[in-house]
Design a protein that fits this description.
Layout: E1 2-15, E2 26-41, E3 46-51, E4 56-61, H1 74-84, E5 93-99, H2 109-125, H3 133-146, H4 155-162, E6 165-169, E7 175-179, E8 186-190, H5 198-216, H6 232-236, H7 244-265, H8 271-287, H9 294-305, E9 310-314, E10 321-325, H10 331-340, E11 345-349, E12 356-362
Helix pairs in contact: 1-2, 1-3, 2-3, 2-4, 3-4, 5-7, 7-8, 9-10
């Protein structure tokens, strides 16, 4: 009986929230908390799935019908996508999926489940193409976003699949750059308020696209990917008042991400400068896109008052978590500052190397 253990880390977004669905770049990193999928061959023709963290069990026939799958059923959508690549299950497994990522908190627990599932299926049943971190990331993206017509981009799956700190060009000219830069003092703060994903993402994406289209209707060669912050005024005159903020946010956040990339590429980055850019990014998410809530704002304030270099909300917004960059000597004070401001949890994480198979052996 074969035993396979597949690990996928969570991720946090350092720069570029609400940018990837516009095809704009992001800087994200995999973190040292994640999802572990443990599978043991069972001699049956089913996957027995156990998710103890959410007290959920289900049984999936390995040759079941994969038509008319409910949106959000990531396991079945992934099976459907992988069949197209000739990754076809031929034996069953008892599978436990659990982890230490907060759920619905902006650290991509659902994407980590998908990536760990994709990695397991390929390890167990093979695939008709070379297996690389990029392939795992792409198939996870196809399963979670493309197949389900979801509003997200590629950040979650690729930052988890590739690991480390990664700069991702998310548009049609997709590319990525892994930044092998040590980054200490990363702290995650949990608000305990479930984030709002699909509805909020879809609304903000649609309004940003309308704002961009309004400019393109007047300036034919306008491209938000190459638009400069110093040219904002000449673009904004073509945008209805109720959409101006969305164009401002898109172009300004893009500018911030590019400045952060320049800093990360330096032999010795100025982490205080990176923290200041995180603060600028958060201010736009808070004041322009309005995706924060009072508790998140208090947690950010608590972190900064305790000496953090920078702090920002992570993910779609409406709740979830924050990411903080703190000096080594201030980490404990910052953690306490977040908790004192109402955070239900705060802890340091390190940069993770990405999704991987931890074990693939014949079990006794």
């Amino acid at each position: 009986m074969k035993k396979i253990i597949s690990l996928a880390p969570g991720r946090t977004c350092l720069f570029g929230d609400h940018q990837d669905y516009l095809g704009l770049p992001v800087i994200a990193c995999a973190i040292s908390r994640g999802i572990k999928l443990t599978a043991v061959e069972n001699g049956l023709q089913v996957f027995n799935i156990n998710k103890p963290d959410i007290n959920q069990k289900r049984t999936i026939p390995i040759n079941g019908n994969l038509e008319n799958i409910e949106k959000g059923d990531h396991l079945l959508h992934t099976l459907k996508v992988l069949r197209r690549y000739n990754c076809v299950p031929n034996k069953g497994y008892d599978i436990e999926i659990k982890g230490n990522l907060p759920i619905n908190a902006g650290t991509s627990s659902s994407s980590a489940v998908v990536v760990s599932w994709v990695n397991f299926l390929i390890e167990a049943f093979g695939i008709d193409t070379e297996v690389t971190p990029e392939l795992i990331s792409q198939l996870s993206y196809e399963s979670e976003v493309v197949e389900q017509k979801a509003p997200g981009g590629k950040m979650d799956q690729y930052s988890i699949g590739l690991g480390n700190i990664v700069f991702i060009e998310t548009g049609d000219d997709f590319s990525f750059e892994v930044i092998n830069q040590p980054l200490q003092g990363i702290i995650i703060g949990e608000s305990g308020i479930p984030k709002k994903t699909l509805g909020l993402l879809g609304e903000l994406r649609d309004k940003a696209r309308l704002a961009i289209q309004a400019v393109k209707s007047k300036i034919k060669d306008f491209d938000v990917k190459t638009a400069k912050k110093e040219d904002l005024e000449k673009y904004l005159v073509h945008v209805p008042d109720n959409l101006k903020g969305y164009l401002y946010a898109a172009i300004t956040n893009h500018d911030i991400t590019q400045k952060a990339l320049i800093e990360f590429r330096k032999p010795q980055p100025d982490f205080q400068r990176i923290g200041a850019l995180m603060n600028e990014h958060h201010d736009i998410l808070k004041d322009i896109l309005k995706i924060t809530v009072p508790k998140i704002d208090k947690m950010i304030e608590g972190a900064l008052n305790a000496g953090a270099y920078g702090a920002k909300i992570v993910g779609s917004g409406g709740g979830g978590s924050i990411v903080v960059l703190a000096p080594e000597e201030k980490k404990e004070q910052v953690i306490e500052g977040i908790k004192s401001a109402g955070g239900i949890a705060a802890y340091e994480v390190s940069v993770d190397s990405g999704a991987r198979i931890l074990e693939s052996v014949c079990a006794d």
